[in-house]
């Protein structure tokens, strides 16, 4: 442990002894085991006494179900509760009250860890400080989770209602509801929140009272009065939904490394709504939001309202207190002198000495106590802040470290591929003069690669040592290891540069190889050509991998450098003042002892002159102090102060050293929607002094002193689209009344649908913007700019943006009160000017993309451009493209299938790449029937229909083919058609279901030509169509109307029969005539 920290703990222990000792619990070493519900209920009852759990360890050894049990929360717990990963389920709290959860209070020193809780905490009554696990925490909660519903009025959290201690590595899922200070993990944080994860939806439902039919009044005056009251109630109700966050509702403590995945807020309802914190004035570091955020005013992807950290230059309360105490001192001195008026001089001297020494001793004792308390409080705050900073550094190092490890592994494989490429040529070595040099160079590169791999192993060990040093709180060791890491990184960068040089040399040797084998056999030349191709592929892979390794090393170097630039944790020491106060305390006690001894031996003598002198001194002292305070009163009451005189913004001073009032290294991925003041990181950077949150700051007439304040957004990135209905929409902050935005980046669209003041960094800014970068599109009414809609004090920032609006448009700023407050801002050259259409040299001016890439410190991502294809909320493919490339040349990826629907990629909005592009896929239900363009004679019925799943681009055509002969087997009347079905992504191997018109419902057969042969298809009738399945999506078909053939045959038969009958009749008639003639002859 750090030497200074040990000393501090020792002094704290001494302070406890000095201030008084608490009784010792004789059961301090006890361990309580809980394995049944009965055990748990007994434990809860025992915790009614605050001292019962102190020093105890409670161990949960089984899951506990509290369902169907009338359970009352554990009143107070001050020991260690080890959950061992077990679950307490069936929790159902509905009683009236506040400070409610599974535990009502966790006392200072209490620990609850590794516990899972499932259930519902939905009390009635006052409903303040409501948590899924703890109502109010003054101890430590670590490794715990809650799943269920938590509802309350104010200070409501999924894990803890109000946190004054520590909450680490906890999670929540389910639903959280409340009106004021509501968060997925904690409602309010005055302590330390670290590495927590929220998946619960927070205030995503909003219920308005519905009017019943019986409430309707037919009296006009009554209706108007009810409307007025209803409107007032609604407005008042809206005001209650304030300080709502995905992780915490309100925080003036430390929030580090926490992530939100739950949706936050309800559209157009609520104030100070944030993806991580609703409102914060403490230190928020390394947090991410991954879900949508909605609300009315001051809506941010990370924080709804970034409230400045304030401190007074002078304390009125303290001055009044000093003045009152000086009056008392004056009266006491007079009284003492009155009392000693009749005593001897020596006695009076000793009494005065005792009085003075007693007062001095009291003062010194108070100083010692205050110094000890300040020592403890200041050091605990500093330790928490420093720990958060170091933990965030470790979190940032994970990605580049993983990239570095993966890169070294890939490099090893690349080197193996490079060596393998030359294996086939080993037997040809005598015929290739330069091959030995090539192999030697390959071996050299492999040695460098092995050295890099060894350096990575060293780096991994140093990373582990850094994590251990952070856990131990050893600041000196942390600094030492950081220096070692820096040295290792420098060594690796040297090796990486060496590998690049060796790679270039090998490429030159490979280029010379073909000249060395001109006289070799053809097979050797062919083998060499193939080898060089494989080797070149391996070299290309090595180049890519080496560049990735270099990127990871640069990222790590930047992270370590940022940490090195931070001021070390400054622990308050018990130095000279403490020693002097302690010595003075004991000296005063000794003086009192001497006075007591002298008093016993004193004799009386004259004293009136001495008494008068002391009274005169006392009066004079009082007069001087009164003059001093009267002067302060004159200064204080001399004139009304403007708001700028009351609040002095010093955010731009010592940015890196500042911790309070800061949001740093946080990333928003979620979409943000609000009516006013919507931002990717913070909705607003301001102070709410007005009662109505619809208003901004109103002049507080009762304030008497000045405040200094700081609010800083540093190293934050936004990737979520920001949409506002009215004014002040920004990629980083919507409305910045004060504060500093430093090294922040925005890569998303910012839009106001009906309002003004839209910017890539800030919608409206009266603070300072430094070294920030915006890339994307910004749109609104008036005052639309790539950096800020309207702003001042903008320095060293860059923008690549498209700006759209009605008036007051600029690539850098839509407008500015004074362009003299601008310096060193650049934008990628385009037709629109920098500020309200005009560019200013040295202040805000155009620059070529190539020149912009060379600006020192510019983020790599800012000058890289990607096209992201998104379907159903998921990124399908991301492609890096060059700036200025024609978007028509970008290849669209295949659309992911979605049951019952087809997708269509949205069109590109610009002809060339001017920023990052997101292309969304829109899904539409399939068209299940496609009608042919060709109709029957009446024009009412299609000749063919195609059944299946088709897009709205599908077309079906059917044409008569008079040149194709019908199949010989076809009977009756035949018609030959060519059928063509066209749509995207159709396969010729599939079968297509067709319906062919059979208007007269005749018996038909359908044939499909396959090559030179015809194949009869299976058919069935469906209304006036015949259904069949053809191979593929097009083909030649023959329809044979067999009913027509039978009718023809019948006609032929009938005609034949008639002919026979005629012939038979004629023969018979002729025969009858002949017989008659014979008879007549015989007669």
Automatic annotation (TrEMBL):
InterPro entries: GLUG. The keyword Coiled coil applies. Pfam families: Glug (PF07581). SUPFAM superfamilies: Methyl-accepting chemotaxis protein (MCP) signaling domain (SSF58104). It comes from the Bacteria. Residues 128-150 form the GLUG domain. The chain crosses the membrane at residues 1048-1067. Residues 1-28 form the signal peptide. Residues 435-465 form a coiled coil. Keywords: Coiled coil, Membrane, Signal, Transmembrane, Transmembrane helix. The keyword Cell inner membrane does not apply. This is GLUG domain-containing protein.
